[in-house]
User: What shape does this take?
Amino acid sequence: MMFTKVLIANRGAIASRIIRTLRQMGVRSVAIHSDVDAGALFVRQADEAVSVGGPRGYLDVEAVLAAARQSGAQAIHPGYGFLSENASFAEACESAGLAFIGPTPAQMRDFGLKHRARELAEAAGVAMLPGTGLLSKGEDAAVVGFPLMLKSTAGGGGIGMRVCRSASELEEAFAAIERLSQTNFKDTGIYAERYVERARHIEVQI
Assistant: This one.
């Protein structure tokens, strides 16, 4: 289905890029904005704009859905960050009769947890570093060999990761990641992967 109007649940340069693409496709764009962003460039670029109140409005599911209903948008594009990886938001869009332009809620839940993503990759025959499932204690990570990386399954942006180069480091590192995970993430599971020194990072985004 080709949409005629899409609401962008984001701001700034991200929203501007989506607006340009929608214009090229002949689709009308609706920007949401906080009170502070009312005069921002992305708001002026959009075909329509709806306020979601304070800065927290970008994360307010009900405010975003209300803006979509008010504008008559048929779909919501979340960009990245904010609500883009929120499976409950994607489900709420579906329940409201709005298309969510992005992964399905099931895909978000599967790939949002790194140990689950490893399981899916392994089942698909993808070559991976040696690793473990979820661990109940640090010493069990030694099976992958040293050096290894202990990781919070729900971590991101480098948060919840510790390199261990010997068995003596495992328990302290495990306890530290567990504390951090309990503070920052809903899921506190921890797993391990072999650590590669001086690795080259190649990433493809789709």
The chain has a mean pLDDT of 93. The beta strands are 5-8, 28-33, 48-51, 75-77, 99-100, 148-152, 161-164, 190-194.
